[in-house]
Amino acid sequence: MARGALGRRLRALAPVVIPVLLAIADAMLVNGLELDLEVGVSMLAAAALMLRRRFPLLVFLFTLPGLYIGYIWFAPMIGLYTLAVRRPGRARLGLCAVLLITAHFFPYPLSDFVLTDYRENTQVLIDASVTSAAPIALGLLVRTRQELASRIEDLTRSRRREHRLLADRVKTTERARLAREMHDVVAHQVSLISLQAGAVQVSTEDAAARAGATSIRELSVRTLEELRHMVGVLRADGGEAAEADGLAPQPDLEELPRLIEMSALDVTYEGGVVAGASGTKTVERAAFRTVQEALTNIRKHAPGARVRVRVDPVDPGDAVDSVRGGGSGRAGSSARGEGAGGAGRAEGCRAAHGLRVEIRNGPPDATATVPALPGGGHGLVGLRERAQSLGGTLEARHTSDGGFVVRAEFPYGAG
Prior knowledge:
Number of strands: 5
Catalytic activity: ATP + protein L-histidine = ADP + protein N-phospho-L-histidine
EC number: 2.7.13.3
Keywords: ATP-binding, Kinase, Membrane, Nucleotide-binding, Phosphoprotein, Transferase, Transmembrane, Transmembrane helix, Two-component regulatory system
GO molecular function: kinase activity
Number of domains: 3
Protein name: histidine kinase
Shape: rod-shaped
Order of helices and strands: HHHHHHHHHEHEHHHEHEE
CATH topology of the largest domain: Heat Shock Protein 90
């Protein structure tokens, strides 16, 4: 572990320290070890390379006196290379190349310059031009390579993102295919149930059996309608999803009395909210599904239990109430007794900021037969996810009397 950390530190320091050491060695080889002006400016130029990545232009300009007075090459060439990698402006690089050629071409002191020595001046000018062109060319090459590597990385990320989108599209297509198969299989079975119920409804003389067959037939028809709607949503893609909302009417709070009446449970319904308030359709639909799932669970796990369903508005200043006690009565009588009070609470509902739904059942009847109904164990999980997606909460727990309570709150802003 320590070796790995030391190796990383050395790899980080090497690009900074090695150029400085090369420039110092160049200064010592050219000017010797005696401390004079030439050695001083050469060493300062070498030391300036420590800051070449942060201030490439200033460092390059700081190395020019070392080239002009101390006749060193490595420091200004490294500085020009760094400038080409980090600040590759054409005008800037052209001006810096001219400065390096000038500092290399003219001798120190300037009085030693002989204009008539054409051959030597030409050789020095060519040497200075190559000295300035080489680091610029190498720096631009390195920068181009870095940009190419960055483009390749972006392309790789883009291709991965494209592969993920393609995989999601394949999953969506497969889900649509499964939805069609589900529709074909389930619709066939439900249609047979509806036909059998219709046959019983016509052939039987028992009033109770005829009423049960009528309920089964109505439930079968509604199941087919909702199944068609859900399959349409699954098959909808992109902009068609909005159109899919109109494939079938969505349930809201107005449907709750009918749902409770057809549940065949001993239910008391206390509805404190007028359905259809502006901007609450999504919340009402979530409340309906919460009650529907809770009643289904009661039929499975607590047959014969007394149930109370309560739907209330949540006012801004309301504190979270404790879970209330259970009640008794039949669904039909409760639904009928609600009409007068519901109209008087309309204005209060519209002023409310949320919706509270509570389904509480007592212990099951020991003499009742537990129906062998299938269950996937995902109902409450789905309800909780739906509530959270709308910005609400859902609580489900056992009560001290052996019953169970499901309590959800939804903000109207989610609708």
